[in-house]
Amino acid sequence: MTPKILTTLKTYTRAEFGSDLFAGITVALVALPLSIAIAIASGAVPAVGFVTAIVAGFLISALGGSRVQIGGPTGAFIVVVAGVIATHGYGGLVAASFMAGIVLIIAGLFRAGQLVRHVPEAVINGFTIGIAVIIATSQLPDLLGLAGPFPADFIEKLPALFAALPDLNPASLGIGLLTMVLIWGLRRAFPRLPGLIVAVALTSALVQILDLPVETIRSRFGELPRALPAPHLPALTLDSMRELLPSALVIAFLAGVESLLSAMVADRMIGGAHRSNAELMAQGWANIGSSLFGGLPATGAIARTATNVRAGGKTPVAGIVHALTLLAIMMLAAPLAGYLALPALSGLLLLTAWNMSEAHRWPEYLRGRRSDLVLLVITLVLTVVTDLTVAIGTGIALGLAIRLSRRGVEDPDWTPRDK
């Protein structure tokens, strides 16, 4: 369970530092708008996304078992975080994240890192697509410039959004669509450059130059802080721990699964091998650290990890540079981030949701085993109309039953795709 950084630093070179420096700065510029957007979509203030990317991003790289893993807040947590905040308040979320960190450390100590391979792929695909659907619908109000609030429930939200369409703000819609087009174009034209921040910055600047009636981070939430908050322990009692335990277990499960899948993707990209139990331990300390600073749950981020590899990241130093770069931006340029347009961030998250859904793989799902397709659809529907606890529990139970019914039939190997 030795952190990967201790191994890589033994033979670290100046050339590797140059590659890590460029990659770390590049990933930081990608993580900046994405972390803020995820925090807003989760029902939290933008600053906590910033804090999470800095604190958790540093700890995941410093203590993790992957050479190139980048950690921080991810889209997979939006649904869980929003639900916990709605039910228990933000203090409850922080306490649940702290508890999830302890669960992950225990899982690492008991060497549970290989168990992710036994979670059925159909369950992972089902709740990932379901989360993508929920994220996409949650971003429609800001994209369309509609005044809320709107119901949190998916079934109730759709007719409410339809009823509000006469109040659509064309300027907000235009900025959101333009951001999406720019992100798509820049990714293809300059794949190694941080097209996310360029696209969001350009459209946000357009809002200021043309004085468009479009909400920004500053107009809705005020100024972003220019320093990390003081760390403090979350308030926990025996009753609150009992009440928050289901949420903590879901956070721990998602953090563990997504981080290990991300590490597997990274291994495939660099031809390496991660240390799964060290990675679980790092996720645990990262979630504890993030909660101490009032941040969100965190995990390894597949898209940011892939960006790190494509930008030339070689060792965990790149992830540490990414966290320190974000801290420098917070201290020196936080007021500028306040001018980011909310429809631009919504467009960014809509593309994130589309990438999460992996639409290019849907024909593959349809051609696969009928039982796997049914398991995927059940998990997807339960994720959208109930919650992740029910969806994941039901999906894993059904997957286990299906696997037992296939005794003697070899399951095909699978590897997660780069989301």
Can you characterise this structure?
The protein has one domain. It is 70% helix and 1% strand. The chain is built from 17 helices and two strands. Strands 1-2 form a two-stranded antiparallel sheet. Helix 2 packs across helix 14, helix 5 packs parallel to helix 16 and helix 16 runs antiparallel to helix 17. The longest helix is centred in the middle third of the chain and has 33 residues. This is Sulfate permease, SulP family. It is found in: Membrane. It holds the Pfam family Sulfate_transp. It is a multi-pass membrane protein.
Strand proportion: under 5%
Strand order, largest beta sheet: 1-2
* Dominant shape: globular
- H and E order: HHHEHHHHHHHHEHHHHHH
Pfam families: Sulfate_transp
Membrane topology: Multi-pass membrane protein
Protein name: Sulfate permease, SulP family
Keywords: Membrane, Transmembrane, Transmembrane helix
Give a summary of the structure in a few sentences.
It is a multi-pass membrane protein. This protein is an all-alpha fold and 419 residues long. 70% of the residues lie in helices and 1% in strands.
Summary keywords:
Sulfate permease, SulP family, two-stranded antiparallel ribbon, mainly alpha, globular, about 425 residues
Helix/strand layout:
Blueprint: H1 4-8, H2 14-41, H3 46-63, E1 71-72, H4 78-109, H5 121-144, H6 154-164, H7 170-189, H8 195-210, H9 217-221, H10 238-270, H11 276-292, E2 299-300, H12 302-310, H13 317-337, H14 342-357, H15 362-367, H16 370-385, H17 388-405
Antiparallel strand pairs: 1-2
